[in-house]
Design goal:
Elements lengths: L13 H23 L16 E3 L2 E3 L50 E5 L4 E8 L9 H5 L1 H6 L22 E6 L13 E5 L2 E3 L2 E5 L3 E6 L5 E6 L6 E5 L5 E5 L4 E6 L7 E7 L4 E3 L5 E3 L7 E9 L3 E9 L4 E9 L2
């Protein structure tokens, strides 16, 4: 029987000893590195954050968040797409409410009453506030006209209104009811050029009635009459005091102008009968005497405010008085 001391121990084999040592080193290294850093979660490719999509001022953004757990471990949490609420738009700047346009003036019906004096008369009144007249600066800038016209300011004459509302430059004439023929008046109305303005601004003559045009300024004007049914004319008046006689044979309204001084304008109504008048600065009028008895339609007509009619009846020895309103337009 062999002695146990004679048995060969595995530890005496150098190769086995080397292998065991290597295993121990590897095991120790694994334990060391495992304990020196936290366990890593499964790797995930971080989501790419897309560019915002803007639609009607609302941004739609896809978000992916990684939320670590309290212990610092765990897989990332993926959140669903979020649609943030549209940001409120800033309130518009405070603006003043639009001012309401002034109510249009409405003319009342004419008021007519009989009179015992046989006259047809009355007043024309303007309803509403007319626009301000414009200053004619060119007149004052002209060397000759500036000296000839001594008024502090010269303006247009679209609405000439008296202190009590009376409207000037309104033609008042019989429109219906007349029959027969009437001779032209023997008087000769005058249209003057004074201070580089026509005076009067609005006048009237009967068809076939002669009238004068005068230049009262010490320098030249010309008179250009624009007519549609009558024959117009255009002539110069070079000297102060020069007068030219003219006549129109057919009813219409004729525009007079001076081409030397273009702001100089006037209007001449040519009426088919003698029963007409132009209101004065107070809006007053009176038709010529001699209107035969009968029922008539009378018209008032203004260049800007339009026209209005009223009915009258003339009986022997009795007439009519009217108050007529025209409204600003």
């Amino acid at each position: 029987m062999s002695n146990s001391a004679d048995r060969k121990s595995p530890l005496s084999d150098p190769l086995l000893i080397l292998i065991a040592a290597l295993l121990l080193v590897a095991l120790g290294a694994t334990i060391f590195f495992s304990g020196s850093r936290p366990a890593q979660p499964l790797a995930h490719e971080p989501a790419v954050r897309p560019r915002p999509i803007i639609t009607n001022d609302t941004r739609v953004v896809m978000l992916t968040k990684e939320v670590a757990k309290a212990d610092g471990h765990g897989a990332p949490e993926t959140h669903a797409a979020e649609t943030p609420k549209a940001e409120p738009k800033p309130a518009p700047a405070e603006t003043k409410p639009a001012e309401a346009a002034p109510a249009a003036a409405i003319a009342a019906a004419p008021v007519v009453k009989a009179t015992a004096d046989g006259k047809v008369k009355g007043r024309v009144v303007l309803k509403g506030t007319p626009p301000a007249e414009k200053a004619i600066g060119a007149l004052k800038s002209d060397a000759n006209c500036g000296k000839a016209n001594t008024a502090a300011q010269v303006t247009t004459r679209n609405y000439v209104v008296g202190a009590d509302g009376g409207l000037a430059n309104v033609l008042v004439s019989v429109k219906q009811g007349l029959s027969g023929t009437f001779p032209a008046p023997a008087t000769k109305p005058l249209i003057d050029q004074a201070g580089c303005m026509y005076e009067p601004y609005v006048s009237a003559v009967m068809a076939g009635q002669k009238f004068d045009i005068r230049n009262s300024d010490p320098f030249m004007h010309n008179v250009n009459a624009t007519a549609k049914v009558n024959k117009g004319f255009n002539f110069a008046q070079a000297n102060a005091g020069q007068v030219n006689e003219k006549v129109f044979e057919k009813p219409e309204m004729v525009r007079l102008a001076c081409n030397v001084h273009p702001w100089m304008i006037a209007y001449l109504h040519v009426v088919e009968h003698p029963f007409f008048a132009v209101t004065d600065a107070k809006g007053q009028f009176e038709l010529p005497a001699g209107l035969p008895p009968g029922k008539y339609t009378v018209e008032v007509a203004h260049l800007k405010a339009g026209s209005q009619t009223f009915e009258i009846e003339v009986v022997a020895g009795k007439g009519a008085e009217a108050v007529v309103e025209l409204a600003v337009k």
